[in-house]
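This is your field. Please look over both lines of this record.
***
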Amino acid sequence: MSTVSPRPGSSLRDGDLVAALDLGSNSFHIVVAQRVLGQLRVVDRLRETVRMAEGLNALGGLAPEVRERALACLARFGQRVADIPRRHVRAVATNSVRQLRDPEAFLRPAEAALGHPIDVISGREEARLVYLGVAHEQPPEPEQKRLVIDIGGGSTECIIGRGFTPLERESLQVGCIASTRRFFDNGKLGRKRWQAALTEVELQFQQFAAPYRSLGWDEAIGTSGTHKAIGNICAAMKLGKGSITREGLAQVRERLLQAGRIEDIDLPGLSDDRRPIIAGGVLVLEAAFAVLGLEQIQVSKAALREGVLYDLLGRGGADDPRELSVAALMQRYGVDAAQAQRVESTALQLFDQVAAAWGLGSEDRAMLSRAARLHELGLAIAHSGYHVHGAYVLQHSDIAGFSQQGQRFLAALVRSHRRSVPKSAFESIPDRLLGNARRCAALLRLAVLLHRARKDELPPGLRLRANGDRLELALDRRWLHARPLLRADLEAEPEDMLGLGLQLHIAQD
């Protein structure tokens, strides 16, 4: 990728640097670009083989030596992005971190080493970003449909898209490292074992093969290290140039089986770094060819990191993918837009009054705004406990543009916007976000209370002051006494607010 046009709303100016980091199951990557004459020009790329997936055990633990290898790599990458503003850096972690029993135990030191937050993204969000990277590296025709397959170390993402828009996204728990470990852990490459493994991996693809083949595509593209490695082998064996064919893949597989053992693999064009995991990659790609009926797949240089870089440009702007997702959720669940706007407006008014005292930033404001618009999402399921239903949907859905931490932040605010606040509401929030999440939840609670009557009215001179964990809400006495239900709600609120670790005092002027 040489240049990318910044999206409208981007805060980048000429000379600014932006960086995207991909913490994959096999390798960690970083790409740094600079805005020059309105375009992004890549100025640096770094890659290190970390093999996170190799260190995972069945219980979600991570081998100490792999953990240290990952942290050392992040410390080096951190030096490269140390002078780039936080808003211009985004790091994403994929399948191996998703599989950890206690991700925070790894993420805390990892973020300290890197010096930037790390977003854990779902498999389908990873698929969306991969597609963006391919679409902007190789711009498609407007109506052209593409199948994109990304075989990583621990998972495989399959996407069908039209133009720059993903239409279907799937993520499978098969990858080059995971499949090599699972099927060939003793190093032997036998024909019988290969066929049994192939049948098992094919079952994974068959889960979505029918709708994918029904939708169809005009071309197939493969991304990331596995496709590049197999493409290099095919080129060296004169089986294709820039693409992988069904016949070429079959010949590569035969050469693997002839080797008999992984350490004896001798394929032209194959690097020593890729040799220990190539068998699993070839196996997964052969299964994809068989089940999806592929005859040929082009190899792209783009991957997740390019998608993250491009996506980063739109975050905070008019076409932020998170804003599009919030609008889609409101429509899907029939959210009362007028009430959502009332609550949002008041929540943001309160936010602006205490942001400086509480050290809240623009990202906190944006998350509070989204939570306000979505706080009644659960009403589409049932009125009783609708805040619980809404929180569940937000935490467990695949929501484009959001990291897993971001979805949990939203879910915690929605879960705690009414009734008592359970300790479990914030259990999954990372420590670095916990304090601000609790404070944003308090602001949402007050905004919801003030609009319980579902009217466009606010007390004159509404004021909120914050001093540490103490909040003081000032209301007009006459206005409040004319609303006995609201007065009763506010009298009970200080006790509920203790669940957020805050002391609320109501002052009447």
